[in-house]
From TrEMBL:
This is Uncharacterized protein. Keywords: Signal. Residues 1-22 form the signal peptide.
Amino acid sequence: MKKIFFLSVIALALFSCKPASVANTQLNKGSQVGLKGSWSIAAVEYPGSEYIKVNSFQIADSKCFVGSTWKFISNNNKGEMALSSYDCPAFSSPITWYINKEGQMILKILNADEKAKKVRDGYILTVANQTENSFELVDKINVGGKMTEVIYKFRR
């Protein structure tokens, strides 16, 4: 009887310890609804590090994202993005996204006809300075051992 009790306690302890997710899935519905619609990136900035070159979202140089168009659909957390700068590679893709209670946008860039659950890599960006007509997404990257912010400034 003691063995069964002991094994039950161990099993309960193992199954009750769920690892914490990096991306909290409790949604911030107010922020999500505020992003609903079409947006464009007006500027990309690296405060204090204007001379670095960043390959954003493993797609293209971050400066190629200036002028890119983004559409966020808040009721199903889908959307699309497209690069259209003449000096940069053309790129268009569906996206899936949500904003958690910590103010982080969890973003996945999908291939055509690919389901988000099949995509293992995504991006965790901080939503900042959100207004009716603008907001910023802040990414943190490692540059020479120092964490540097990349700020994507969106406008309607």
